[in-house]
C-alpha cells in the first residue's frame, strides 16, 4: 500500500487584497459610472467578476493611476 504525501496547501496572499465596487472606484476617481465601465471594458482598469458583481482589486486601481501619471509626465 502506497501512501501519498499530503498536498501542499495553497499559499495565501501575504496581505489580503481589498476588492472595490464600481461605486467605490467612481468615488475615488471622481468619475461617473459609464466612465468607469469604459475603463473596465477597454482593459485600462483590471477587474474580476464574481457572479454578476464586478470587483476591482485595489492594486489594479493603484496601477491604473500610476500608469496615467507616467503617461502625463512623458507627454
TrEMBL record:
InterPro entries: HTH_17, SinI_DNA-bd. Residues 19-68 form the Helix-turn-helix domain. It comes from the Bacteria. It holds the Pfam family HTH_17. GO terms for molecular function: DNA binding. This is Helix-turn-helix domain-containing protein. It comes from Streptomyces chromofuscus.
Amino acid at each position: 500500500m502506497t501512501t501519498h504525501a499530503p498536498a501542499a496547501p495553497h499559499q495565501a496572499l501575504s496581505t489580503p487584497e481589498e476588492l472595490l465596487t464600481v461605486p467605490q472606484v467612481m468615488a475615488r476617481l471622481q468619475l461617473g459610472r459609464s466612465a468607469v465601465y469604459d475603463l473596465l471594458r477597454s482593459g485600462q482598469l483590471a477587474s474580476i467578476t464574481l457572479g454578476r458583481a464586478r470587483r476591482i482589486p485595489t492594486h489594479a486601481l493603484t496601477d491604473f493611476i500610476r500608469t496615467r501619471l507616467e503617461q502625463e509626465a512623458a507627454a
